[in-house]
Amino acid sequence: MAMQFYASPEQIMRDRSELARKGIARGRSAVVLSYAGGVLFVAENLSSALHKVSEIYDRIGFAAVGRYNEFENLRRAGVRMADLNGLSYDRRDVTGLGLANAYAQTLGAIFTEQSKPFEVEICVAEVGATPEDDSLYRNTYDGSVTDEPGRMAMGGQAEAIAGVLKSNHRSDMSLGEAVKVAVQALASVGGEGGAARAIAANQLEVAVLDRNRVGRTFRRITGGALTALLDGDAAGDAASEAGREKTPTTPTEEAHKPTTSAGSADLEDKPGDKSGA
Amino acid sequence: MAAGFDPSGRLPDVFTNAGTSSFTTFLSRVAPEMLPGRRALPPGMAADLAPHATTIVAIAAAGGVVMAGDRRATMGNLIAQRDIEKVHPADAYSLVGIAGTAGVGIELMRLFQVELEHYEKIEGAMLSLDGKANRLASMIRGNLGAAMQGLAVIPLFAGFDLAAKDPARAGRIFSFDVTGGPYEETGYDAIGSGSLFAKSALKKRFRTGLSVDDAVRLAVEALYDAADDDTATGGPDLSRRIFPVVMTATAEGTYRLTDAETAAIGESVVAGRMENPGG
User: Fold this and answer.
1) Rounded to the nearest 5 degrees, what angle is found at the Cα of B228, between the Cα atoms of B183 and B151?
2) In terms of C-beta density within 10 A (0-12 exposed, 13-18 middle, 19 or more buried), how is residue B200 classed?
3) pLDDT tens readout for residues A4-15
4) Measuring CA to CA, which of A77, A271, B136, B178 is 20 to 30 A from A50?
5) Known catalytic membership, residue B74
6) Cβ <8 Å between B11 and A81
7) Cβ contacts of B20 on chain A, cutoff 8 Å
8) What is the CATH number of domain B46-275?
9) ipTM for the predicted complex
10) Which of B24, B54, B233, B262 is labelled catalytic?
11) Which H or E element spans position A2?
């Protein structure tokens, strides 16, 4: 008979967390934020066909980072669940919270039951009547779900990106400003020696949930419209942006959130990270 | 939800598997009782059980298509509803009108709208116009059992074909029967109890290459002719300000004429008939 090795549940969970976090950190990042006219999704994505950002329902959008096949699986499930509930009740009765809860249950079950967790991080965003009414939910690989304050970053180096985002983001920004803030945050990492870099328009996937639309609010911004947004009033905004360019790219305290979640925090023992504990 | 109990609380496999892009196929696995065709009906005729929705006309115009429906639902000799809406957008570029048993028709139409939206979200691309018509045909076929007991629903489907080579001919119309279809129509078509009279009127007055505005006017005229000879079709109701629902599908998408716009056209048609009742 083969020798059975004992592995403590604690060790198993820690290994799974590490696998998931490493997988997610390898990928390109995505940011989601509220602005005056709705909710903006910006993901760094080399493919124009394989989407990281998608429509789920009238006022609900989906953004994900990590393994494509795994989050695509969850995206389909979300569309099916939302359409089923919308047909059974009414279109207004489909909420982001319901979807975030279903994802949390599913990711949690996969994390504990399967030999390999999903290497994904998901944002379920619901646009409201005002920026204060927007909800952004972060679903992580272990099934934990957090309610984010109007902005969030996911993926590789999410902490640094979230730091830049936090210092630049305001909920009353226009779409043009919001896109620039999001791209600036994404570009703040990954350059030579940790410096900022430039991201071309064709490497970005941009979409919004438009607050002022009735019915389906999701729309993609591509091609000429995106280039115009990225270049638009570059001169006019330069003066006001000058002060904001010197934002810290080092992780801030709040930015610890992205890759450590409530469920896994006590399983991690990263040296030097225990300052808050 | 009908799928089996899973103690982990995760979404059942039927939600997450790659499987199908069709919402009705998904529904048949998760909640088959929500599909109109899956319900067992007691034997016997049920034709007089529920209100019937009546006349719909569709006209292909240059650069689009127009669909209009009267507002009456009848139950035997009674008017069940004066302001029912039977013409709806199926998605951003297509329209669907329903004649027959009103309740089943409204349910099928809602399901069809979700079907098209669902495919678009899952696949990231819209179905072709022919694909949409085929999908509607299979949903009507699913209702065949109920149709044989008198609860028939016949839709009229029209849309702007984004893949058409000539934008002037992109407006296309599809009709169906209780066993499915679709049958593509040239120029114009009508369904419902007053369709005979509406089609007779259109046969004499339709010309290819009509402008969308002229086609709108022609559709309202045809509905007037249907209401003139068919008691189940409602004409323009000037005292209650109830006028036909008129929608267009063009390259810019679907558009429903406002109440003020349809009122102006309805009043002008009635004024014309004051001088010449035959139109």
Assistant:
1) 45
2) middle
3) 788 888 888 899
4) B136
5) no
6) yes
7) none
8) 3.60.20.10
9) 0.86
10) B54
11) none
